[in-house]
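HUMAN: Would you supply a protein with fold tokens?

ASSISTANT:
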Amino acid sequence: MGMPAVMTQTGTGSVVWFADWTISHFQVGCSLQMSGAAGSCQLDATFDRIDISGGGGTGAVGIGIGTTAANAVWIPVIAITSSTTATTVNYTTPVVAFRATLTAAVATSIMTVNFVQAGWPS
């Protein structure tokens, strides 16, 4: 995957981005912004192993090889509540994945989240 990784969500919903937690000196820069109609969005991180072998996130709960993104324990990182706000964070604790969620939105609300991980090839 090339860098930076850019993900968007229009209207209410979530996107998940998987970091490479095995890179020594883990460092991920993230930016979160919202445009369009007012809403709120949040960036979370998880240490849980998310199994995507069942077709993009159905997981294998009960088999012992992972959980679904919906069942993972998500830890809040940053949040914004204004469509004129953008914020950034530098995350240095290794995590398995980040999830950005757009809530309290309408069809014209757009959330954009950018990820740049140090050590990845271009």
Summary: Strands lie at 5-10, 13-18, 28-35, 40-46, 75-80, 86-91, 97-103, 110-117. The first strand starts at residue 5 and ends at 10. The domain at 5-43+76-117 is CATH 2.60.120 (Jelly Rolls). The two ends are 8 Å apart (CA to CA).
